[in-house]
Amino acid sequence: MPFDTTVSYPASPDAVLAVLTDEQFLRDRAAALNAQVQEVTVTGPASTVRLSAPTAGIPPVFARFVGSAVGVTERSAWAPDGEGGHRSPLDVQSEVFGREVRVTGERRLRPEAGGTRSTVTGDVRVDAPLVGRQAENAVRELMTVVLRKEDELLRARLG
Q1: How far is CA 49 from CA 9, 104, 114, in A?
Q2: Within 10 Å of residue 130's Cβ, how many Cβ atoms?
Q3: Is 146 helix (H, G, I), strand (E, B) or coil?
Q4: Coil, helix or strand at residue 62
Q5: Of 66, 52, 55, 69, which Cα lies nearest the Cα of 128?
Q6: Which residue among 56, 100, 106, 115 has its CA within the 20 to 30 Å range from the CA of 86?
Q7: What are the strands, taking DSSP E only, across the chain?
Q8: Domain of 133?
Q9: Tens digits of per-residue pLDDT, 77-108?
Q10: Burial grade of 116 (CB within 10 A; 0-12, 13-18, 19 or more)
């Protein structure tokens, strides 16, 4: 199930990238989502975040399968895009009862008048016969919540 989100920030792509790759920002984002950080590794423009995310608020049809929390791994590897901005593959994955839940796509930071245009495009896949489409829609909604919270934190951090 595809998704596409675009927001603008009053800062340069380099400034936005500096926040997105800051270990404390990644920890603060997890805390804002009520997730427990298991590991945050930042090496230059690359990061890996492993956390235990609460499942409160997910549709009841799935709640009985996932328990109170689920492990999530998010990887980013930012590189210049050749147009004054940056791009990174979007790679978020989880496993629930042996079934893979994966969000893949791309994140882009592009210069625009007065700042940066941030675009996140991707696709949600849930390997679950019968309920896969429903689960993909639920994960897509969760991605929207995560990106909205990240947006709030970025705006606060950028001033």
Answers
A1: 23, 15, 30
A2: 7
A3: helix
A4: helix
A5: 66
A6: 100
A7: 2-9, 36-43, 46-54, 69-77, 79-80, 86-96, 99-112, 115-126
A8: 2-158
A9: 999 999 999 999 999 998 776 778 899 999 99
A10: buried
- The distance from CA 92 to its chain's CA centroid, rounded to whole angstroms, is 7
User: Into how many domains does the chain fold?
Assistant: 1
78/28 Cα distance (integer angstroms): 20
List b or e across 45-72, with b for residues whose CB sees 16 or more CB atoms inside 10 angstroms.
Answer: bebbbbbebebeebeeebeeebeeebeb
Amino acid in position 146: V
Question: Tokens 């930071």 identify what position?
Answer: 109
**Phi–psi pair at 83, nearest 5 degrees:** -125, 20
**Would you tell me the crossing angle of helices 132-158 and 13-20 to the nearest 10 degrees?**
110
* Cα separation, 55 vs 57, whole angstroms: 6
Find which of 64-73, 95-104, 107-116 is predicted with most confidence, using mean pLDDT: 107-116
What the block records as the tokens of 146 is 């995560």
Q: How far apart are CA 92 and CA 102, in angstroms?
A: 6
